[in-house]
Amino acid sequence: MGSEDRLTRKRPTIRDVAERAGVSKSLVSLVVNDSPRVSDKSRTAVLSAIDELGYRPSAAARGLVNQRSGLVGIVMSGSHDVFYAEILEGVASYLAENQLDTVPIILHGGHNRESESKAIDQCLELRTECVMLMGSALSDDSIDRIGREVPVVIVGRRMNSEAIDVVSCDDELGAELATKHLLDLGHRRIAHITGGNGNGASERETGYCRMMEQAGFKPTLIAGGYDMKYGTETGHRLLEGPGDIPTAVVAANDLVAIGLMDVLRKGGVRIPDDVSIVGYDDIVLAGLDSFDLTTISQSIHQMGETVARLVCQRALDSEQRPQTVLIDPALVVRSTTRVAS
Amino acid sequence: MGSEDRLTRKRPTIRDVAERAGVSKSLVSLVVNDSPRVSDKSRTAVLSAIDELGYRPSAAARGLVNQRSGLVGIVMSGSHDVFYAEILEGVASYLAENQLDTVPIILHGGHNRESESKAIDQCLELRTECVMLMGSALSDDSIDRIGREVPVVIVGRRMNSEAIDVVSCDDELGAELATKHLLDLGHRRIAHITGGNGNGASERETGYCRMMEQAGFKPTLIAGGYDMKYGTETGHRLLEGPGDIPTAVVAANDLVAIGLMDVLRKGGVRIPDDVSIVGYDDIVLAGLDSFDLTTISQSIHQMGETVARLVCQRALDSEQRPQTVLIDPALVVRSTTRVAS
DNA sequence: CTGTTAGCGCGTTCAT
DNA sequence: ATGAACGCGCTAACAG
Fold it and tell me: Whole-angstrom Cα distance, residue A249 to residue B305?
């Protein structure tokens, strides 16, 4: 006995339980599924047999006959940052609270299309009731095609498809809010560090440009990405570069803003006195006294709830029509922005 | 056709493919599994039938006959912080690189024993080849019991059991390194903010105390936890409190150190001139210029690789005996520590 | 060498 | 309370 059990003895099946309890397989099944049509005597006999053998029903066997896996597949692509972790928490607690006998499982989508596709294939083979894509790198077309095989909810990215649900922040609006805030403070030379081909980056860029043009000023785009290094790089370039430093910057996200601030401050630039900076995402870090960054909040919590609701609706009710939900972002004013001097 | 397909038509099975290709089920199976004993003609016929129908083998059915799920279950309990994300990345890439046809899936273990147990039960029912526990809240006993049903690897926490693998950092050694560094710099009044009942916290405390006593000084413990707020709280208490502020602090982790620094600096305390601070974990944040925190690095990467290796060994080779691997931490000296004045 | 038949694995359910 | 049939894919044994 002990550890070699596992090696020699295979897992007990429903047959073993039936035999040990002196009843039929069917009865064991009824007991396991809490059927009322079982005598107390049989029930206790079966339950103790289950206990003694350490029996666990096989999800595979049950799934086969039920034609239902009870799984929800979540494919996480790109970086697993805090943002996604919070959404995940939302999904898990929603499923738990609503007593849905459905288990969310996360698969690693990796950083490229190929591994993401592989992860999605796994979901399809596992027959997950629904596939949730967090930050997909696939084309709209590919995703649309998957949406015809299984309910798909995509998070954090805009998409045009009638076949799938979309939960996303209104990044365009968010960037508009950020830019408008700076314009209202009297800034005119406002630059935007772009998010490269990150999720929602082009919308943020569009929002920024629209607002600038609407106010009659020329947009200034600085190519970047969602990594902190793009902030530090930009900082160095601004310090060393020939041109004037803009009086305000709309950063692609908080990390970029923080990297930028860090370099500028070390270079003797005062923030917000010389340069105002707005971030995006309102990550925990942004609220820290050292940064106290003005930023755009995505209401991640609301997003998590929405995703969970959609996932469940689609997974459980096949009549449900796909929908697109845009979460409204909000401006959070802290101390990295002030009136233009 | 289109979206209603999914609602009306069930997924095609191996039979449907066989029928459409005009061959037997067996042959389809052979094609799907790349058997060489299939003529090119049949193979192409089958493959195109698969393509036309959008056939995907059912993991449940295959698992049932193979007696093998091809899944590795990862249960994440407590907070899903960056630390775990990196380890995860390690496991996924190890599995991919080594071409193991095994899929890691993550289940949400929640924040309490009950939900963690539920997640582990799911793994058992899914017949995962192995269960990986990230930061379990269960008792040693419970975990040991699970280790008799399925190979278990536990990460980030010490355990005494012959039945399961353990990958953990040598937190005691890490705290010793941190404390010794400060002692070497001539500090004597060195306080330690503890990590409460967080994973590894008691080992860190032990290491700190041992080093202090060995040097002939009295340990000063400040009850805390792994959250940033414990750093800020401690900061306020030190500033307002009656006693002298210690000349150096070993924080439970980087977040606590950062919270502490933030408050102390705002209160006019210079770091490292007045107080030296050492963190623990070497999170990305610690390397940022704004903090540039001296800390203990856990070599998360090495940890991820080790976990992955153990998971695979145990999952694939049942002869493998469980082992305990302690990762050596390293001191990273930055600018928050200096010689005692 | 290529292809088929039959039976199995595990749990559910209907008719007995 | 039970026996038999079933769901889907795999494979050993067998046939052409």
Answer: 40
